[in-house]
Amino acid sequence: MKDKPLSWMESEYKQYLLEVRAMSERSLPNHLKIFRRFARFLAEKRVWSARRVSLNLVYEFLEGCVRGKSRRYAKTTHYIIRSILRFLHFTGRLEKDLSSEMMAPCMWRLADIPKSFSDKELTHMLSNLGAESSYDHRERLIMLLFICYGLRLGEVTRINLEAIDLSRKTITVHERKNVEPLVLPLLPAVEEALGGYLKHFRPPGVSTKRLFVTIKHRSRAPLTEDAVHHIVKKFLRRCGLQGSAVKFRHTLATHLINSGVRLEAIQAVLGHRRSESTRVYAKVHWEALREVAENYSLLL
Which of 34, 72, 96, 131 sits between 20 and 30 A of 27, alpha carbons compared? Predict the structure, then answer.
C-alpha cells in the first residue's frame, strides 16, 4: 500500500468509521475533528508517513490536546485516538495495533458534578418562551418538556400521541434507555401548552403518531433528534445561554437533591439503569417530584 501522511487519509478514515465501525453520521464530526488535529500535529513534527506513528508521538499529542480540559474530554479524545490507531493497523499502515498498548486516562467515578442552569437562568428562559407563530408554540412545548421533566433528547423526540392522557393529566415516556416507561403528571403549564399545540398548531391530517412534526414542510414528517437539538440550541442562544438538552436533566436532578429527594427516586425519574449514574448528583424521593415540579410551574 502506498505510503502517505495521515492528512491525506481523512476520507478513507470516514469510510472506515461508517462501514467497518458502523458509526452513525452524528458521531462523525467529533472523530474527524480530532483526526484533523492529530494530522496537523504530525505535520508539525514533520512526520510525513503514517507508518512512523508511535506511542511516544501519541502521548505527546494527547498531553497537549487535553491539557486544561475536562476528564470527559480527555477520555473522549483518548477513545478517538485509539480508533485512529486501529484504522492504521486495519489498513496495513501499522504492523502492530498500538491502540491495545495505550494507557487509559484516569477517570475517577463521580469526580465531576454536571453543570446545571440556575433559577435565574430558568426564569429568564421561561420569560423568553414565545406564543405567536406555530413554531413558537411547538418550541414552547418542547422546552417545557425539557425544563419540567428533564427528559432525554430522544425521549422528547419520540413522544407519541398515545402517550398523552388528557383525562388523567399524565404523559407516559415509553422509549426510555433500558428502563421501564415512566408516567409523569401533566403540570398546568405543560398541559396548557400541549392542549394549544394539539388544537391549533399541530398540522391537521398528519399520518404519523409522533407528537412533534414539521409544520411547513409538505411531507409533515416527524421531527428528528437533530431537529429538536437544533431547536434547543437556537432557543438557548436567543436567551444568551450555553448548554444542550442534557443540561436540563442535570438541572432537574440538582433541584430534586436540594428538595431532599431519595436517590432511588431520582434514578427512576432520570431513567438511570445503575445507581452509580445517579449518585453523581447526591442522595435524593419520587414522592417529591410533583412538589419540585410544581415549584417550576410557579415560574411559568
Answer: 96
